[in-house]
Structures are given as structure tokens and as C-alpha cells.
Amino acid sequence: MDILLDNLPILIPLFAAQVAFGLIALVHVLKHPHYRFGNKIMWAFIVMLVNMIGPIVYFIFGRGEEQ
Predict the structure, then answer these.
(1) Percent over 90 (pLDDT), the chain
(2) Residue 6 falls within a domain, yes or no?
(3) Shortest CA distance to 43 belongs to which of 28, 21, 67?
(4) Would the pTM count as exceeding 0.70?
(5) Within a domain: 8
(6) Alpha-carbon dihedral of residues 35, 36, 42, 44, nearest 10 degrees?
(7) Residue 12 lies in a domain
(8) Do the domain assignments include residue 3?
């Protein structure tokens, strides 16, 4: 328990960044209909279930062209 309390100042910003990045990616998935591959449902699951890596994968591989 002491280890957790000692590292809390580092963990809180990381958790906040993870939540913010996931929400930004989810909003982008829901607003944009164009993807390089896959569909909206697949990318929403990846973004929400794969935590920090899911949004990164979406923005690198899934995001389609802006119109």
C-alpha cells in the first residue's frame, strides 16, 4: 500500500491522460465515417477496450482522410 501512495503523484496524471486520450479517440471515431480499414463499431471497441494502446492504434492506422 505504501508503494501505491508513494507513486500516486505519478499515477494520477497518467490515468487522466489515458482517460482524456481515450475520450478524444472515441469522439473522433463516432464523428468521422471514413476509416482506412474496419468500421465504426470495431474501432469503438478497440479504443475503449484496449485502454492506452487502442487510441494510439486508431490514430496511426484507422483514421481515414478528412473531408
Answers:
(1) 9
(2) no
(3) 28
(4) yes
(5) no
(6) -50
(7) no
(8) no
